[in-house]
Design goal:
Blueprint lengths: L12 E3 L14 E3 L10 H4 L8 E2 L2 E2 L16 E10 L3 E4 H4 L7 H8 L3 E4 L6 H16 L8 E5 L10 H8 L5 E5 L5 H16 L3 E9 L17 E11 L6 E8 L7 E2 L2 E4 L16 E4 L3 E2 L1 H23 L8 E4 L4 H10 L7 E2 L2 H4 L6 H11 L8 E8 L3 E8 L2
Helix pairs in contact: 4-5, 7-8
């Protein structure tokens, strides 16, 4: 809860019994006692949210300031109450790729499980896909765009290098929301989901849109059959809403990273000669014009990393949740390779009929893959209220993380 002065009163730290002696890496988490909200009246209440929401000809209009919100309450739980997704119109099959590089449908499907992928074309943009997915999530959740407090855009390929969350929330109509981008490639959505729950628990935020969206087709070398067969473009979104602590839908989580693995999967910046010619005698100035290389991946090393670390991550998240693997209703992994998905399911002893996979139709859509697969499963009636989902994302960085969540 935030007072009219903008300062948060002291919070009482208490041990979280569920996490005691368990959790990711042995870390002990601290919870907060939930206190009753303090009612604010008069001018003080209007100061809970400051700053205007629109900019007109470079002048911020105070008259257009967001409507006052209710006092924030910390220590709340989180629940997923809506989801949505969107994909480009162009579908590229394995047979289509065989006309570009030396490959075949049989070769690709046997090694990856992928048969088709969607790719941005024409005037389509990743922002448009993100907006569509977000609107569908709001519609399912029956939440007005004006009631969204925060938008997290999880992407490594925004249309604008400076980020796309602000544009997305504006087009969705989230006039009272703040937004920012999270860059963690294929792990992005899981990190965004966990971040959203922490904003709710520690910041008193009520409604958060978490969008996973990527267009890796723009950074693929389409002459390299080792990578061009893998990636597609898409966007997926969920609406995370505050709830009472005893209804908390995030049961446990684990996030990790290891920069030593960056050499195995990356898309680094590169340079071309500067268009400027005069250096005034300084040999290293002006800087060269920046661009990005294509995606580079050591497939064997990434595979070994995933089949080892993903099950371990899920086991740690389950340990924090105090749940056995047998309590999982659905296993939902980042859709990178069917062999990785099968290996993780086998280690966790989860039968194939409890594994969610749409990899064959969309390929690896990076941060979009988990919310895209979740949305399809929910709308198909597979995932139902109360189902426990073990979700895990992994990829460039190297980063990986898992969350045990309950669908509302």
């Amino acid at each position: 809860m935030v007072t009219a002065s903008g300062l948060a009163p002291p919070r009482l730290a208490v041990s979280c019994p569920r996490a005691a002696g368990r959790g990711c890496g042995g870390h002990h988490r601290v919870g907060f006692l939930r206190s009753a909200p303090v009612a604010l009246a008069g001018p003080a209440a209007a100061q809970l949210r400051c700053c205007a929401s629109t900019v007109d000809d470079g002048v911020v209009s105070a008259a257009a300031a967001p409507k006052p919100r209710l006092p924030r309450v910390v220590g709340m739980g989180s629940k997923l109450i809506g989801c949505g997704s969107a994909t480009p119109s162009l579908s590229v099959s394995n047979d289509d790729l065989s006309k570009i590089v030396e490959t075949s449908d049989e070769w690709i499907a046997a090694r990856t499980g992928i048969r088709n992928r969607r790719v941005l074309s024409g005037n389509e943009t990743l922002r448009e896909l993100s907006v569509q997915a977000a609107k569908k999530a709001l519609e399912m959740a029956q939440v007005n765009a004006d009631d969204v407090d925060l938008v997290l855009l999880c992407t490594s390929t925004p249309d604008d290098l400076f980020g796309g969350a602000a544009q997305v929330l504006a087009e969705v109509g989230c006039a009272n929301a703040f937004g920012f981008d999270i860059t963690a490639a294929c792990s992005g959505f899981i990190i965004g989901l966990i971040t959203a729950t922490r904003f709710i628990k520690g910041g008193g935020i009520r409604n958060i849109l978490v969008i996973g969206a990527d267009a890796l087709s723009q950074f693929v070398d389409w002459t390299d059959r080792g990578t061009c067969i893998l990636f597609g473009d898409a966007a997926g979104a969920v609406l995370v809403q505050a709830c009472s602590a005893d209804e908390d839908g995030l049961l446990g989580f684990c996030v990790q990273s290891d920069g030593n693995g960056q050499k195995h999967l990356n898309c680094v910046s590169s340079h071309v000669e500067s268009i400027l010619s005069k250096t005034n005698g300084v040999p290293s100035f002006p800087p060269k014009k920046a661009t990005f290389s294509n995606i580079e991946m050591n497939g064997k090393e990434v595979f070994r990393f995933a089949v080892r670390c993903v099950p371990q991550s899920i086991e740690k998240a389950l340990e924090e949740a105090g749940l056995p693997a047998s309590s999982i209703d659905w296993l939902l992994l980042h859709q990178a390779n069917q062999r990785i998905i099968d290996a993780a399911a086998s280690r966790l002893d989860i039968p194939s009929d409890k594994v969610i996979s749409n990899l064959a139709n969309y390929g690896n859509t990076s941060a979009a893959s988990i919310p895209l697969a979740l949305d399809e499963a929910v709308r198909a009636g597979k995932v139902k209220a109360g189902d426990v989902i073990a979700a895990s994302g992994f990829g460039a960085g190297l980063t990986w993380g898992s969350a045990i969540v309950k669908w509302c």
